[in-house]
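Mannan endo-1,4-beta-mannosidase
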Amino acid sequence: MKHFFLLPVLFCLLLTGCVGTKPIDASATKETKALYHNLGKLSENHTLFGHQHATEYGHGWRGDEDRSDVKSVTGSHPAVIGVDFSGFSGRSPEAIQRAKEEVRKNVIDTYNRGGVTTVAWHFSNPVSGGGFYWVDTVSLPGVKYIIPGGEAHEQYKEILNGIGEWAHSVRGADGKLAPVIFRPFHEFDGDWFWWGKGHTSREEFISLWRFTVSYLRDSLDVHNFIYAFSPDNKFKNEAEFLERYPGDEWVDMVGMDNYGDMGRDRYAIDTAAAKLKIVSDYAKKAGKLAAFTETGLESIPDTTWWTNTLLRTMKRDDMRLAYVLVWRNDTRSPTHYYAPFPGQVSVPNFMKFYHDPYVLFEKDLNNIYKRKKFLGIF
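Predicted structure tokens:
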């Protein structure tokens, strides 16, 4: 057997610096609390591998049942599947309903297989055109409009009502609600999204984050979300990383998106690792989970990228990373892909990555939604 999930909880009780065992939602479902705890335990020795939109579509295909490019290469789906709430607003009611149903099915299927879902939100600007990107000639700084006191606040609540309704509908074959890692307003330290740093103040962003969590959790009784905070890679120290942090009581997981240091703009493994260590160290100190929430190299022309860049970055220091996620494989583009498919030049190296005991795929997970008992202790 390649990996074993049996990591003794007793060690967590005896050692200091162990990740907290409860999410910020005191009423979180049993399965959500178990996922949070187990991700923390696994991150002491492993990192789960994730791929965005892995089972929805891939290089040259879409909508095939139980398929992913990663599974076609390795025999296993990624341990973490990325989906998106992008279709939950800014479209016709019929299109929104279709999007919700497609994401619901994906999340339930992943949960039933024993995998993990993380949700990004490429949120179309609710007060102007431009979609989720900032477009100088079109976009309005939407955050100030949708936070409490803003003229579009009630409209934002309606959008969240739709997310809340969806969250109550994702029940697995066991009848339980499937937990998801919800990662809204990502890469907020850049200017490319309308919620980015150049288009909203620190106070407005924090207000948006706190209201979003509070409304979902406390008003809509959503108790199957784990909340992840992830800037891009512009920070150089902990203070910069935490510049727009809403506070420990509002965040379950801290992360970083980083393509630039991982080969897109430059190969800077030491720089990328140093930034990841800032994230991991803060998580240890604050009792949070940590993750490498987005990365990858488009087209993967580097035949050793998986072991010589990604794995080396994550292993350089003593870090605890719950998962690493690479971006999507576009179904139409011949070049826009971030995970290998059969015949892609990095497949041999990806198989080395797959067989490394540090990395976990879906087949390696064992009851991640249940707390283990050891010596009678939960």
